[in-house]
Design a protein that fits this description.
mainly alpha, globular, about 300 residues
Length: about 300
C-alpha cells in the first residue's frame, strides 16, 4: 500500500503551479512596463535618431543598426524612468496610462530601477566605445531631472538640445564609428541642437495643466502668447534657412517643406486646445525628422 505521505497534496500541487507561472507573468508584465515608460517618446527620439543614423552612414549592417537602436532605447528608458519617478502628479493628469499612475510599478521600485540603469548605460557605452556620448547623455538626464533644470524653460531647452545631440552621436558611433571623423557631421549635430533649443517647447503646450501642478516654468506657462508666436517664427525661419542652404533639394520639395513648416507653426498659434496641441506636436515631430536629415553631408 502507498502511504499518504508519498501522494502529493492539492496544496503542494497548487504551490508548484504558482512557482511555474509567476515567472511567466513577469515575462509578460515587465516588458509591458518598460515599453510604457518610453512609449510616448518613440516618435520624438527613437524614430528621428534611427533615421538620422541610417541616412548619415554610407554603409550600415543590420547588427550594428540594431545595436544602435538598443543603446538609444536603453538610454531613453533611463531618462523616462528618472523623469516619471519625480513627477507623478503630472502624469496622473496628462498621461495616466504610464506605469506609475496606473499602479503597474511602485515608486520605490522605479527609483531603484533608475539608479540601476545609470551604470548599465555607462557599461553599454564603454562596450561600444562611445563612452563620452553615454556619460554626457546621462549627465544631461541628471541635470534635467534630479537637478531640476527641466523646471525652467531655458535650462530645459538646453538639456533637450544637449540630449538630442548625444543621442545622435552615440547611435552613429555604434553604427559606423568612422563617420564621426567627418567634420561635416559635427555641423549637423550643431544644427540639430540649435533647432531643438529654439523649438522643443512645442512639446510643452499639450502638458500645461500638469506642468502647472508641479510648478514647472515651461515657456508656454511663462509666456503663453509669446511662446506660440515663437514657435511660428522659429519653425518658419528654420525651414526657410535649411531650404536656402541645402542646395540638393529639388524646388518642388522645397515648396512642400516650406509650406508644411509654416502650416504647423500657424496651427500651434491658432488652435490651442489640449487636443489640438497634441496633434500639432505629432506634426511637429514629422517636421523635426526632416530638419535632422535634410542637412546631412552627402
Amino acid at each position: 500500500m502507498v502511504s499518504s505521505a508519498s501522494i502529493p497534496s492539492l496544496n503542494s500541487g497548487w504551490k508548484t503551479f504558482q512557482e511555474v507561472h509567476i515567472p511567466i507573468q513577469y515575462l509578460v508584465i515587465v516588458p509591458r512596463i518598460l515599453f510604457l515608460f518610453t512609449a510616448s517618446d518613440f516618435k520624438t527620439v527613437m524614430i528621428p535618431v534611427a533615421l538620422f543614423t541610417i541616412l548619415s552612414t554610407p554603409y550600415i549592417d543590420l547588427h550594428s543598426f540594431l545595436a544602435a537602436l538598443f543603446w538609444t532605447w536603453l538610454h531613453l528608458l533611463q531618462f523616462c524612468v528618472s523623469n516619471q519617478s519625480l513627477h507623478i502628479e503630472e502624469d496622473k493628469l496628462n498621461k495616466p496610462w504610464r506605469p506609475i499612475p496606473s499602479s503597474l510599478i511602485h515608486i520605490s521600485t522605479t527609483r531603484q530601477l533608475r539608479w540601476l540603469l545609470l551604470p548599465a548605460c555607462i557599461c553599454l557605452s564603454v562596450h561600444y566605445r562611445i563612452t563620452s556620448a553615454g556619460v554626457l547623455l546621462s549627465l544631461a538626464f541628471a541635470a534635467h531631472n534630479e537637478l531640476g533644470f527641466g523646471s525652467h524653460w531655458l535650462l530645459r531647452n538646453a538639456c533637450n538640445a544637449w540630449g538630442y545631440a548625444m543621442f545622435n552621436a552615440g547611435a552613429v558611433g555604434i553604427a559606423n564609428p568612422e563617420v564621426l571623423k567627418d567634420g561635416r557631421l559635427f555641423h549637423s549635430f550643431v544644427y540639430n541642437g540649435l533647432v531643438i533649443f529654439t523649438t522643443i517647447h512645442a512639446q510643452d503646450f499639450r502638458d500645461v495643466e500638469g506642468d502647472k501642478i508641479i510648478g514647472r516654468q515651461t515657456l508656454p506657462i511663462v509666456y503663453p502668447e509669446g511662446s506660440r508666436l515663437a514657435i511660428l517664427v522659429s519653425m518658419w525661419g528654420w525651414t526657410s534657412g535649411l531650404i536656402a542652404t541645402c542646395h540638393g533639394i529639388h524646388a518642388w520639395l522645397s515648396l512642400i517643406f516650406g509650406a508644411v513648416g509654416l502650416v504647423i507653426g500657424f496651427r500651434f498659434y491658432c488652435f490651442r486646445s489640449a487636443r489640438d496641441d497634441r496633434m500639432s506636436y505629432t506634426l511637429y515631430n514629422l517636421w523635426l525628422v526632416w530638419t535632422q536629415i535634410v542637412h546631412l553631408p552627402a
